Amino acid sequence: MPDSNSTADDIVCYAPTLVTTNGIWQGDNPLDYSLPLFILQLTLVVLATRIFVFILKPFRQPRVVSEILGGVMLGPSVLGQTGKFANAIFPLRSVMVIETMANVGLLYFLFLVGLEMDIMVIKRVGKKAVATAIAGMILPFAIGAAFSFLLHKENQTNMSHGTYILFLGVALSVTAFPVLARVLAELKLINTELGKIALSSALINDMFAWVLLALAIALAENQSASLASLWVLISSAAFVGFCLFAVRPAISWIISRTPEGEAFSEFHISLILSGVMISGFITDAIGTHSVFGAFVYGLAIPNGPLGMTLVEKLEDFVSGLLLPLFFAISGLKTNIGAIKGAATWAILFLVIFLACIGKIIGTLAVAIYYQMGLREGTSIGLLMNTKGLVEIVVLNVGRDQKVLDDESFAIMVLITLVMTGIIVPLVSLIYKPSRRIVSYKRRTIQTAKRDAELRILVCIHTPRNVPTIINLLEASNPTKKSPICTYVLHLVELTGRTSAMLIVHNTRKPDCPAINRTQAQSDHIINAFENFEQHVGGVSVQPLTAISPYSTMHEDICNLAEDKRVSFIIIPFHKQQTVDGGMEATNMAFRTINQNLLANSPCSVGILVDRGLTGSNRLAANQITHHVVVLFFGGPDDREALSYAGRMLDHPGIHLTVMRFVPGEEAVEQQSGTNKDREKRLDESILKEFRIRSEHDDSQLAYTEKVVNNGEETVAAIRSMDDIHNLFIVGRGQGIITPLTAGLTDWSECPELGAIGDLLASSDFAATASVLVVQQYIGSFGDALTTPEHTHDQEYHHRQDHLSPLNRAQTNAFRTESMAL
Questions:
Q1: How wide is the angle at C-alpha 412 spanned by C-alphas 407 and 418, nearest 5°?
Q2: Which residue of 182, 247, 271, 702 is most buried, as measured by CB atoms within 10 A?
Q3: Mean pLDDT, the chain, as a whole number?
């Protein structure tokens, strides 16, 4: 590099070897070369952020907090205080490389934000959300303007006080929509009325914030001349017009040239992705930040399959790797040591307090006007204080443009961390949705009256689960006299993506295309069930969405089942059938959900092993024909399975076979001395109706008994059945020990299905029929079962006989406490 005395005749040489090393064996230090150093920096950033994600996970903190803290730890505030570490890992010569990569990630992330954002959403949200968003911005902006006189130092920045007010006001008044969505999902509030208002308000707030950010950037970069600022605004408006009237039609033409269902060509995808960089270059050249160009370019691309394709190709890499690098860079720039003096710290805490209070007061006023509770209004105000991407972008641009000095930047980063970090604890403390004790008794199909409404909660992972479940519901014989209310719950994993959260609102018009794969799947599911509702009488469908981590998703299912007074939950098995007839796992997390649901469900549960349930191409009652078989061994679960099959009998297209397995002499001898009289009476009571009906009408119902002595004979009897059956309905048999299934559990792959269910669902079992494994609700209130032959307490104590001593003690304690309440 030339020194200060160099002339125009000096020659500067570029050494390509400064990028990559020749190896340590030749004496090279990898940290002296840009690529190895960047790889190490990126690795340390990812490692540091993941450590904080793990530490803060029990506190349910948003990921942005962990990412900023990871950067702070690596920066001058902690590890960077050691000169050797700072000079070796983050030398000044490497700053340009790491910041360039971080900004490339930011560029593409803003493109994705614009790509997924629906501008027309503002027209479709309620007045309450708009009022909440505006009220939540005005007071914090005013507070930021007031305190700008204390924080702004004219001798340390070269920007006007007006620009400083704009930056500070935007930073304090903005609400981070993606971060808030994850906070609401973690708090299990995303599907509540409070959650929907907060999320809608945050979406509007986010849009306003991007407009203010563009204005702030234009003013910050062109303070020297008012004429230059005018040209920047005119050029920016021209760029927006070009994207609207040139880019959008061109991309629409590309979409129209691609046949429906076919993938877009790699050339077109590459061309569009290159347009992100070109847009960033243009807006940066005209005097507006490059992120503005990427964002507007993303808005210009029509929603639909192309947007879904672009999101799939970019989101994991950009959101998972490059964007955390941007947040970490913000932490690396933060030097807490730059905040000097007790007065400055006092101002810092005062700004945090007043900014939080400003949003709370604004939203509380709106809540009172709309007759909401004080706790709800305060909780919305706290939630609106969530910070994230927009504020970090504002702070970084402000620091780069010398609007903020190191002290002001550090103060604002700490404000971001504190205001976002306190949201979850405070809202959890203030807002606790009252969960009433639901004392309804129809928690099982057996207790549900035939002429009353049966409420079923259907869980869906993917559209592949839909056809068989719809055919199963249709076979359940919904009629006007005995209707079925179906709650369709689309299960979506909480990944932190903004796109997944948008489907909760149902803000998109029915005739508009989906903006992402998650919403496209949700729309497909909803349309299929609505079509089912239109063609089959006696069915009402209510679509819902649960967005949670897989580890806690069963809580959403159980809470919804209890709130809606559901009697039966149907959830898909974690394996699906392959082309060759085998069974392969789709997602092992689905199995965990099923296991947790069986252990915690407030009603009966059915796990559906989907091998197809054909027999009808049209949704008409007189077109369906299904051959259903119930394998009955005895016990509460088998009685529940038989009760569900009994509803199907009134359907004209259902042919039901009830096969009861009776213990032979050898099996009876093994059971001698055990008390089975009560269980036998209950089984005989429910089988009596089926035996009598089969004697009078054998066209729809066939009742047979098989005498077996052990598990081998049971398997042989099942394998000898005709292959005309479409559906097996079996009880899980939890807690029931019988010699008829002895040995079957020794090689069981999926204990959650029980011995017989696991046999029918295994790849070794040569059958193409679907399997529904039913577990009856045990009951802790004595509400599990009522028949003329026994009471609630009798059935309750009977089920307790099969529980372990620990579970029995826990259930008895819970029952005693519940009865006292």
A1: 125
A2: 182
A3: 80
Rounded Cα gap, residues 294 and 275, in angstroms:
8
Question: Which pair of tokens denotes residue 551?
Answer: 């580890």
3-state secondary structure of 576: strand
The residue ranking higher by pLDDT, 215 or 804, is 215
Q: Are residues 420 and 526 in the same domain?
A: no
Reported as a single tens digit per residue, the pLDDT across 159-170 is 566 677 777 788
> Is 90 exceeded by the pLDDT of residue 607?
yes
- Domain containing 99 equals 16-430
Give the number of other Cβ atoms within 10 Å of residue 230's Cβ.
12
CA distances from 632 to 263, 640, 690, 741 (A): 49, 10, 12, 12
Domain membership flag for residue 2: no
493 burial type by CB count under 10 A (0-12 exposed, 13-18 middle, 19+ buried)? middle
- What pTM was computed for the model? 0.72
Q: What is the DSSP letter of 701?
A: E
DSSP bridge pairs for 10: none
812 alpha carbon, distance to own chain's centre: 35
Could you tell me if 595 and 483 lie in one domain? yes
Question: What is the rounded CA–CA span in Å between residue 695 and residue 118?
Answer: 62
Asked if 288 contacts 236 with a C-beta cutoff of 8 angstroms, the reply is yes
> Which residues have a Cβ under 8 Å from the Cβ of 4 and sit 6 or more positions away?
none
Give residue 552's identity as a one-letter amino acid code: T
- Distance, C-alpha 95 to centroid of its chain: 36
| Alpha-carbon span 243 to 301, nearest angstrom | 9
List, in sequence order, every residue forming a beta bridge with 493; answer none if it has no partner: 548
Q: Give the number of C-alpha atoms closer than 13 A to the C-alpha of residue 306, restricted to the C-beta side.
A: 27
Both tokens assigned to 757: 């269910």
CA-CA distance, 559 to 352, in Å (whole number)? 36
Provide the β-strand partners of residue 705.
Answer: 660
**369 within a domain of the structure (yes/no):** yes
59-118 pLDDT, tens digit each:
888 888 888 898 889 988 888 888 888 888 988 888 888 889 988 988 998 898 788 776
The total domain count for the chain is 2
94 shares its domain with 51: yes
CA distance linking residue 615 with residue 653, whole number of Å? 9
**Separation of alpha carbons 809 and 626, rounded Å:** 44
> Counting every residue, how long is the chain?
821
User: Residue 205 in contact with residue 137, Cβ under 8 Å?
Assistant: yes
Q: Which two tokens stand for residue 625?
A: 């024909």
Q: Is 786 helix (H, G, I), strand (E, B) or coil?
A: coil
Least confident residue range of 218-227, 468-477, 527-536, 767-776: 218-227
Cα separation, 798 vs 17, whole angstroms: 79
- Return the higher-pLDDT residue of 347 and 465: 465
User: What does the longest C-alpha to C-alpha distance in the chain come to?
Assistant: 111
Q: What is the CA radius of gyration of the chain?
A: 32
Q: Answer whether 787's CB lies under 8 Å from 685's CB.
A: yes
Q: What SS3 state is found at 627?
A: strand
Q: What angle do CA 812, 816, 820 make, to 5 degrees?
A: 170
3-state DSSP helix/strand/coil % of the chain, to nearest 5:
60, 10, 30
* Helix 406-421 × helix 161-173 angle, to 10°: 20
The predicted structure's pLDDT at residue 129 = 84
